[in-house]
Amino acid sequence: MTQAATAIPVPVRIPIRQILPWAVLIGLLALIALYFVSTEQGATAMFANSYIHEFLHDGRHLLAFPCH
Fold first, then answer.
1. What is the average per-residue pLDDT within 7-22?
2. How far apart are CA 4 and CA 2, in angstroms?
3. Nearest to 53, CA basis, from 64, 42, 62
4. What is the pTM of this model?
5. C-alpha distances in angstroms, 45 versus 14, 19, 35, 50?
6. How many angstroms separate the CA atoms of 7 and 32, rounded?
7. Are 56 and 37 in contact (CB under 8 A)?
8. How far is CA 51 from CA 3, 6, 31, 60, in A?
9. What is the number of other CB atoms lying within 10 angstroms of the CB of residue 40?
10. Which of 4, 42, 56, 57 would you call most buried, defined as having the most Cβ atoms within 10 angstroms of its Cβ?
11. Confidence band (pLDDT; 50, 70, 90) for 53?
12. Higher pLDDT residue, 37 or 68?
């Protein structure tokens, strides 16, 4: 009787140079989203109207950010 050879899984190597641009982009988008959810209101507002504040109002309460 012969024994079947078991395949040893080889980990896939992903070069850092391929991941780094995507990681930077996702990090930047996350910081922009955090700004709009957390501080886009009042004196620190980038936009004059309160449209963004009202659009994200329920999300702020869901994430426990005080807004009024």
1. 89
2. 6
3. 42
4. 0.59
5. 40, 33, 10, 9
6. 45
7. yes
8. 69, 61, 20, 14
9. 19
10. 56
11. confident
12. 37
